[in-house]
Amino acid sequence: MVVISESLVESQVEDLSEEKTWGQVAWTMTRKYPLGAFGLLIVVVMIILAVFANILSPYDPEANAFEHMLTPPDLQFWLGTDQFGRDILTRIIYGARTALFVGFSCAIIGSVVGLILGVASAYFGGRIDLIFQRVMDVFMAFPLIIMALAVVSIFGTGTQNVIIAITIPFIPRCARVVRSSALAIREIPYVDAARALGFTHTRIIMRHMTPNVMAPFLIMLSAFVGQAILLEASLSYLGLGVQEPTPAWGLMLQGGAEEYAESAPWVAIWPGIAISLAVFGFNLFGDALRDALDPKLRQQ
Amino acid sequence: MRNVYSKLALSVAVGAGLVLSAIGGSGTALAKKSGGVLNFVVGSKIPSYDLHQETTFGVIHPIRPFYSLLIRVNPENPSSPTDFVCDLCEGAVPKGEDGFTKYTFKIRKGVKFHDGTPLTAHDIVATYKKIIFPPEGIPSARKAFFKMVDSVSASDDHTVTFKLKFPSGAFIPAVATPFNIVLSKKDLDKNGFNWHKKNINGSGAFTFVQHQPGSFVEGKKYAGYHHKGQPYLDGYKAIAAPKMAVRLQAIRGDRAAIEFRGFPPKARDDLVNALGDKITVQESDWNCVLMTTPNQKRKPFGDARVRKALSLAVDRWGGSKYLSQIAIVKTVGGVVFPKHPLAATEAELVKLTGYSKDINASRAEATKLLKAAGASGLKFDFSNRGVDQPYKVVGTWLVDQWKKVGLEAKQRVQPSGPFYATLRKSKDFDVSIDFNCQSVINPIADVTKFLGSAGNNYGSYEDQPLEDIYDRLLRAGTEDEQRKIMREYETRAISDQAHLGITLWWYKINPHRSYVKGWKIAPSHYLNQSLDNIWLDK
Hints:
The complex is a heterodimer of chains A (about 300) and B (about 550).
Chain A (H helix, E strand, L loop, with lengths): L1 H16 L4 H11 L1 H18 L1 H4 L31 H37 L1 H15 L3 H12 L3 H28 L2 H8 L4 H9 L4 H24 L11 H12 L5 H28 L1 H5 L1
Helix pairs in contact in A: 2-3, 3-5, 3-13, 5-6, 5-8, 5-11, 5-13, 6-8, 7-8, 8-11, 9-10, 11-12, 11-13, 12-13
Chain B lengths: L1 H23 L12 E6 L14 H7 L7 E3 L10 E3 L15 E5 L14 H12 L16 E8 L2 E6 L6 H5 L9 H7 L14 E7 L3 E6 L13 E6 L3 H9 L5 E2 L5 H11 L3 E16 L9 H9 L3 H11 L2 E3 L14 H4 L9 H14 L6 E7 L2 H16 L4 E7 L1 H11 L4 E7 L5 H4 L17 H12 L3 H18 L4 E13 L2 E2 L17 E2 L2
Parallel strand pairs in B: 1-9, 1-10, 13-14, 13-15
Antiparallel strand pairs in B: 2-3, 4-6, 5-6, 7-8, 8-9, 11-15, 11-16, 12-16, 17-18
């Protein structure tokens, strides 16, 4: 375990010593991980769409325009319109905002809380670790969607509650993975040295242990974004997530799939593609990140 | 061009369907055939079998065929709001004696419950006493319909007399309500008033076979049914299918022949496009309306100017044109079912707040009122029910309409249970969607919804002048007088005070397999569900 940690540090030092430009690093990474680069491209496009939605979108995403209801894709409405006459392209662009906001919020909050709890659990060990892990076992016994459904049924619907619903099941998953890395870190002598110097538990956890478990943390974080987007879409599809008229892909899919699958299939197809692409992008990127950060995989 | 042809073909098919329904629906042009089992789909659950306590079509559709009523809407003319005929009584529906304060019904002889017990006037009396004067702790959903009833008694085995405290045009429609199923006195005496929640013993056209919860209810022909020669069917199966897509596909795949509640226009079009003349479409105005209820306990909704602005922002006439293409709503109306003689005419409607055909002027007025009330740019919570048709569709439309006068409504959609808890118990909402769905068209009873004192009004307000107008309406003797007072009532309730905001009246669309004959659409999904006149042309 010690060897792995050292090799990680060595490789980082080696990389830095070469003083490559960002462009060179990007090109090297793209050649080394082409699928990851493609995933990153999708993520970057999504982020650009979300940030500049009001500039890029041709129409108001929420305003009804019944005179254009259920228009098939044409030059005016590239992806067609829905039953309220709203431009689907516009709603997909704005939907990226909802997806990324929910995805990143859930992933960041869930994994950061999981990181702290996981490291603390490993650091303290003993009875605290035992109790904490059994509580985590209870949470992890439920599939993600079931857990999220239970939370939504308690707190109600809406963006804020969807974030809570998705974040809660992420915490134990991240905590469990991080803890296993932190257990190894705990045994390294510098942690004992820090204790001997009289550092507080908080300082040891936050400054000396947490930075050393960043690799699994980042991998979990990237995987969580994709999962969160999918969960948000699932909850919205079930009518338990984001509510109309907010543009959200799952909600668009729900509105279109049940009533218009036959007569106006574009209402359901485009949001379905958007969800698939987003999840695909984050998963590819996450896999590449794992390959890059995991010394074993990198050596292979 | 292809699109034009497909639309033309669709129009022709729908038109043909409507014509066919008018001809074939009556079943008079064809010889009625006996036999066969009718499979139909039901999109709601069965909370209990006791229709006196329940309010949902989820019970009416599968359970009503096991029972009879004292009187019912004419199954040959169910769209009429005033055509009632005897079911368990004999002859014509009584007109009323002693200044319309006494109604005497002659009960049919030889009628038997499914367990073989003879049905007499005493069973009718026991049934109506349970409905009108239930013992403490026994719920009766329609007790308030019978406020005018003083007593109900049987002078012999075949004569029932209702005595009223005052004459009321609301009495006979209230008796014809399809939830008033006749129970056996013997069952009530022996097993108590809750026995019928889990047990069935009626005198209807079909006898109970089995109920597989969440799956289906099965009934078979009752040989001793009192309408001779009926029912035509050997039996029926009411299949539970909560998802609309499943119900639609069930009809398309001929796993079910009909769904009695109603489908949205797109579903009708899909079925007609796919099956052509194998599908018959029946359509009708629906005695059901969606409305908005501002919570007057919360600021600024106690201010009539804000409530009026909410109504003025809504383009009902424009909404009718477009929403009717995607939702089960269509007709612009006031407080009374649009086709009833007591309903407001279009000329009368456009004088009410929010009904003008000049939507720009209405919205300018709304903006002015909001400014005067200090509520410009108001943000509020809008509670809605998590049911697509028509709640979520109309809710999304309303949010857009309000936005046009600067109001920002945040829609909070909840499943039915939590939605009702919010509306009725916690009242934790600024504005909520609400509905007024009734069975028999009985405007004088139906409009109680707008009274602050009504049990089903959730606006949290008191309006004594409105209560006084209603009291006069209840006692009005002639239709002319009722109509005049109804306009007064309507103007105060939805225009001057804008206590509740009416959106659009529902529109019922029933596409069904063309081999289903004899069933005629009614203005309510609760009506004409005895199934005794249905036959299969197979």
